[in-house]
Amino acid sequence: MTENLQISQLGDPALRQIAQPIDNVHDEWVQTLINNLMTTLLSSNGVGIAAPQVAVPYQMLIVASRPNLRYPNAPTMSPTVMINPRSLTHSQEIVKDWEGCLSVPGIRGLVPRYKSIAIEYTAPDGTVRQHQLTGFVARIFQHEFDHLSGLMFLDRVESTQDLVTEQEYLKRITINPD
Ligand code: ZN
């Protein structure tokens, strides 16, 4: 039985905590957290989630790009659970694109991120994996990875003029779908 966890909202100190590494991915609480985090993500139209968003200050995140009501143009991938993730290298090129956050409902912002990034993480079965991520998926990773350091996408926006409501955002991507 998995649980749909409550998502902390902007202003909750839980979102500003520094997440701790997970020592043993085979611990029961870790496997329970994986299942609950996945359930919470899938039921909330998110494309990613990090454990600090459900007030659990440990280094776990899920990247799960797929088209949905909040991101109609997102590429499809199978949801990937990443434990103790770290960045290895990244492109020099930086791209600005729209982001939202389950912890910041109703707001979208233009956020600069590395276009591609090489990462390493521990999978739920305990194996260490490396991936090269590009584009929207690289963006999701960088967004979720920031949550592990207590950072929100709002901290990365270059100007308050780069902030819009979700309604305005949907209008823009419908008119100009790239
Ligand atoms: Zn977020």
TrEMBL record:
Pfam families given in the database record: Pep_deformylase
Cofactor(s), by name: Fe(2+)
Cofactor descriptive note: Binds 1 Fe(2+) ion.
Keyword match NADP: no
Any single biological process term in GO: translation
Keywords from the named record: Hydrolase, Iron, Metal-binding, Protein biosynthesis
Enzyme superclass (EC): hydrolase
Catalytic function, reaction form: N-terminal N-formyl-L-methionyl-[peptide] + H2O = N-terminal L-methionyl-[peptide] + formate
UniProt-recorded Gene Ontology molecular function terms: metal ion binding; peptide deformylase activity
Binding site for Fe cation: C101, H143, H147
Family listed: Belongs to the polypeptide deformylase family.
Protein name: Peptide deformylase
Species per Swiss-Prot/TrEMBL record: Drouetiella hepatica Uher 2000/2452
Lineage, highest ranks first: Bacteria, Bacillati, Cyanobacteriota, Cyanophyceae, Oculatellales
